[in-house]
Amino acid sequence: MFQASVLASGSKGNSILIRTESTKILMDAGLSGRKTIDFIRSIKLDENKLDAVVISHEHSDHIRGAGIICRKFKIPLYISKPTYEVCKERLCTIPAGEKYFSDRSTFTIGNIEIKAFQSSHDVVDGNNFTLKKIGDDTRKLSIATDLGFSSKLMIMQLKKSTSIILESNHDIKMLLEGSYPPHLKQRIKSKQGHLSNEQAVGVISQVVHPGLKNIILAHLSEENNLPKIAEKLMRDYLKSINHDLQLIVASQYRSTKLIDV
Ligand SMILES: [Zn+2]
Ligand SMILES: [Zn+2]
Question: How close is the Cα of 123 to the center of ligand 1, in Å?
């Protein structure tokens, strides 16, 4: 068993649950502790068996509940040292301790192997991840959100994924014509901001292969995007290349089902 559910995704909080038979981890914990537990229960899993929380970067929508969850379940927090330094006051004490990973390092939690690689985002040390179950080379999950553009490194890392959780943050027209102040629009579409729907399709076009069977579009803006717009663009692209797979759009308000990586 190697499964993932995007518990919630968007600017109000992000968290992804990954599990194997023996290991259960959260990738980011940007919701309140209460909501995180409610979402875990909503997919009929037991929150008491979490093994760790892994943090991608210091923005509140990724760390809000991290300290609370780690304290409640006495589990360690995996985080890069620069990220920890800028948000340790917000995390407060982690009794089971912080475990530091660095960019391009590979670390293991239970029987899950995680590789971190840099994302281009307006933070001290943004990371995206690929995950494998130890001993199983047939499946690979990639998680890439909160990034302004797709670097060569990122494309390289995402290749041969069987499942990809990918940012599809905004529709560029909705962003430009929307109500955000100019500096915020500029930040979102900059190289250190967020991926647009078009950019998400661009990423997939570079990494698609016959073994890719799940795409979950994530971190959609509630202001500058609509699930049906993001979904249609990706679906039209996949149709144009005759690639049939499971396409899911993650939501801020309900968890996706557990997908088999
Ligand atoms: Zn975010
Ligand atoms: Zn962010």
Answer: 11
SS (H, E, C) 27-74: ECCCCCHHHHHHHHHHCCCCHHHCCEEECCCCCHHHHCCHHHHHHHHC
- Ligand 1 centroid to residue 135 C-alpha, Å: 31
pTM for the model: 0.97
Number of residues assigned to the chain: 261
Ligand showing the shortest atom-to-Cα distance for residue 14: 1
pLDDT in tens, the chain (261 residues): 999 999 999 999 999 999 999 999 999 999 999 999 999 999 999 999 999 999 999 999 999 999 999 999 999 999 999 999 999 999 999 999 999 999 889 999 999 999 999 999 999 999 999 999 999 999 999 999 999 999 999 999 999 999 999 999 999 999 999 999 999 999 999 999 999 999 999 999 999 999 999 999 999 999 999 999 999 999 999 999 999 999 999 999 999 999 999
Distance from the alpha carbon of residue 120 to the mean position of ligand 2, in angstroms: 10
Ligand 2 center to 242 CA (angstroms):
33
**Which of 3.30.460.10, 1.10.418.10, 3.60.15.10, 3.10.129.10 is the CATH number of 2-260?**
3.60.15.10
- CA of 146 relative to ligand 1 center, distance in Å: 5
CA 5 to centroid of ligand 2, rounded, Å: 20
Ligand index nearest the alpha carbon of residue 31:
1
* Ligand nearest the Cα atom of residue 11: 1
